[in-house]
Design goal:
Shape: rod-shaped
Strand content: under 5%
Number of helices: 6
Largest sheet: none
Radius of gyration: 43 Å
């Protein structure tokens, strides 16, 4: 008979792996409550110094502090002082007088409204072109457009200028609210004073002679 087979002994089973215990989850971080903003903090709404005024912070100023009016600055609700009455009244009446003079002298039909608007400016340029053609024979097209040819033809207006030039100079001064008294074509003390005041206002030598650059400034509406 065949010999008995050897008895095989199975190895002992592997021990159970150890049970790993996970660490407990970290506690939630505490919720920090930010303190309320302190007075005058940048996130607070700044009080406006006057209604509807822009909120600005001056250099070195703590946000939220009252804003003072800068030199030369006028709050929106302020009322400008009414100019002193003169022989020709307040500036609006001077413009009205100039508009009437333009209509009467040059046959225009400009609106007499007391405003130096673009329509009035067109009329005074047209009058200038007519006067230059009449006085100097420049042959400019009198259409009210301030063309390069018109600008090049503008002369100086000294005190001894012809009556038609002085009359137009007085109109231009009055349109800019500079009082010449009466628009009469006479270069008198009031006209000379108005020219010099205008020159001082625009940092031009106040010599009483209306040079071409001054005439161009007078024609700005």
């Amino acid at each position: 008979p065949l010999p008995e087979p050897p008895i095989m002994t199975l190895p002992a089973p592997l021990p159970k792996p150890p049970i790993m215990t996970l660490p407990a989850p970290l506690p939630k971080p505490p919720i920090m409550t930010l303190p309320a903003p302190w007075p005058n903090s940048p996130i607070m709404t700044l009080p406006a110094p006057w209604p509807n005024a822009p909120i600005t912070t001056l250099p070195g100023q703590i946000p939220g502090t009252p804003i003072t009016t800068l030199p030369g600055q006028v709050p929106p609700e302020s009322t400008f002082p009414i100019p002193t009455e003169t022989a020709c009244g307040i500036p609006g009446q001077r413009v009205t007088a100039a508009q009437k003079a333009l209509n009467e002298r040059y046959g225009f039909n400009l609106p007499v409204n007391g405003f130096y608007d673009c329509t009035t400016r067109t009329g005074v340029v047209m009058a200038l072109q007519r006067v230059l053609n009449e006085q100097f024979g420049t042959a400019l097209r009198a259409d009210g457009n301030l063309t390069p040819e018109t600008i090049a033809a503008i002369p100086s207006f000294p005190p001894n200028s012809p009556e038609n030039l002085v009359y137009l100079l007085q109109i231009m001064l009055m349109l800019n609210a500079y009082d010449v008294g009466k628009i009469d074509g006479i270069y008198g003390p009031a006209t000379r004073s108005a020219v010099q005041v205008f020159q001082k206002d625009y940092f031009i030598q106040p010599n009483g002679i209306a040079e071409p650059d001054m005439i161009l400034k007078l024609l700005e509406c």
